[in-house]
Amino acid sequence: MAQSESSLPYLLAADAVLMVHALFVAFVIFGLVLILAGKALAWEWVRNPWFRLAHVLSIGIVMVQSWFGVICPLTTLEMALRARAGDTVYTGLFMAHWIEAILYYRAPPWVFAVCYTLFAAVVAGAWYWVSPRRFRPAATLADRPRPDQSPGLR
User: Structure pTM?
Assistant: First the structure.
């Protein structure tokens, strides 16, 4: 379908949302891979509590959405932008669409809910097996050395 110049911003926005979605999926999948590799390779950064919290919340959101049959908001936004541009849209779940497109695999939504739940269980197990460091309170101004004071004189 030929696109007009007025549809270009919507197509670019849809592609940007798709990229954010792909990065989100990569964060969830490769985050777990890095956490497990970090355990084996003694990478201390994989125990960063902010990274770990973001990771567990990410898969948790995906899992809960799948339980309630909620289409991902990123998928909804991307499809709305593509429709506004007059582009072809797909229906259903983001992952279902791409797994079907890549692997020619069809599965009912409950299969994806089970997969997300199992993946979330592995992430939860990794939380305990490769436990994150404790959150530390932010340093206050009183805790920081003054420029005219060497750290040893405090």
Answer: 0.76
